[in-house]
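Students often ask why inverse folding is considered easier than folding. One informal answer: many sequences map to the same fold, so there is more than one right answer. In these notes we will look at a single instance of the problem. The structure comes first.
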């Protein structure tokens, strides 16, 4: 098994203190990918204190063979519950732990039909494990960010008067699927007053001279995501727009400066909110400052006022301060930041200064 997968599994085992006969179960695509490299719509992973096994169906026989980690697999014959019951009987497994936030009530109900096994929810937050970065995940994320920025440059070349939000969104999707493994999320493209919608849905709104443009998108490379937002201007920006842009840009840099391992996530958010208060615009910042980035688009930690999480080392965080002014405009700028082995690196290389077309 590849060393980095084994290290990730070891961290999980240590955190849960798995004993003989105990295991950890997940059926979320992201968890299974992170811990084994298997990427499938039908993936179930059981990790005991001594072994790891994937349960899937025979459609993925060849994919399992091509995994470069020597992980074992059991193919589901009739149904998953019976297959898991048989495996637990053969290997004397009596207790299986799961994350309650990542599994449906229906799935738990099915699992608990295995009477000889106790299925117990994990009471502590272990989501930080799936945010931890190593050389492999960092390399994949860097590739995703590089592709994202190359796509953005191509999009800038296509900006012209009369084009619609949906036109640019369609071009974005084409370029994403042409160059990457997929999109990290459904892209956001907004013009004019609609940039004040934090997560607005693109429509046939057409670009006119002297309009702001907000584009938020990311790509996926081997399961790892990028997250990228830029607000720029088509025409001549007003003095008010330029002033507000500089405030958001300064807030971004304050957030990055305050981002440190072993610090409270809420303290980073507070540093930005206090800065906004100086300009009486804190009420125009309506969402969290940022989030971890990895196999999950929104990963641990959450940089927000009410977050009690501690920022670990060896993570990637997307920081995205913003200001939204109803019926006028919105401005959001986002950078992906790596904290690794005590050092900080801004992974996003595209300028964060105001781009004017």
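Output (designed amino acids):
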């Amino acid at each position: 098994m590849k060393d980095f997968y084994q290290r990730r599994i070891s961290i999980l085992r240590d955190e849960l203190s798995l004993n003989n006969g105990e295991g950890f179960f997940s059926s979320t695509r992201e968890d299974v990918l992170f811990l084994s490299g298997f990427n499938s719509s039908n993936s179930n992973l059981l990790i005991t204190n001594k072994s790891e096994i994937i349960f899937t169906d025979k459609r993925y026989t060849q994919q399992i063979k091509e995994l470069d980690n020597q992980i074992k697999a059991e193919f589901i014959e009739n149904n998953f519950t019976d297959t898991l019951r048989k495996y637990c009987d053969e290997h004397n497994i009596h207790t299986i732990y799961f994350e309650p936030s990542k599994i449906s009530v229906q799935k738990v109900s099915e699992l608990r039909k295995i009477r000889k096994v106790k299925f117990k929810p994990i009471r502590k937050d272990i989501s930080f494990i799936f945010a931890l970065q190593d050389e492999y995940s960092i390399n994949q994320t860097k590739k995703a960010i590089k592709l994202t920025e190359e796509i953005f440059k191509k999009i800038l070349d296509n900006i012209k008067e009369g084009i619609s939000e949906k036109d640019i969104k369609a071009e974005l999707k084409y370029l994403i699927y042409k160059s990457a493994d997929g999109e990290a999320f459904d892209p956001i493209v907004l013009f004019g007053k609609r940039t004040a919608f934090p997560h607005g849905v693109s429509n046939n709104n057409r670009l006119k001279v002297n309009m702001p443009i907000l584009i938020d998108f990311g790509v996926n490379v081997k399961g790892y995501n990028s997250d990228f937002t830029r607000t720029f201007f088509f025409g001549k920006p007003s003095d008010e727009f330029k002033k507000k842009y500089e405030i958001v840009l300064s807030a971004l840099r304050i957030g990055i400066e305050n981002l440190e391992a072993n610090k409270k996530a809420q303290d980073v958010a507070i540093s930005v909110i206090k800065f906004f208060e100086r300009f009486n615009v804190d009420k125009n910042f309506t969402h969290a400052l940022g989030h971890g980035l990895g196999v999950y688009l929104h990963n641990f930690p959450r940089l927000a006022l009410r977050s009690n999480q501690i920022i670990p080392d060896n993570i990637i965080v997307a920081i995205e301060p913003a200001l939204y002014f109803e019926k006028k405009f919105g401005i959001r700028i986002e950078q992906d930041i790596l904290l690794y082995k005590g050092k900080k690196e801004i992974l996003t290389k595209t300028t964060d200064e105001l781009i004017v077309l």
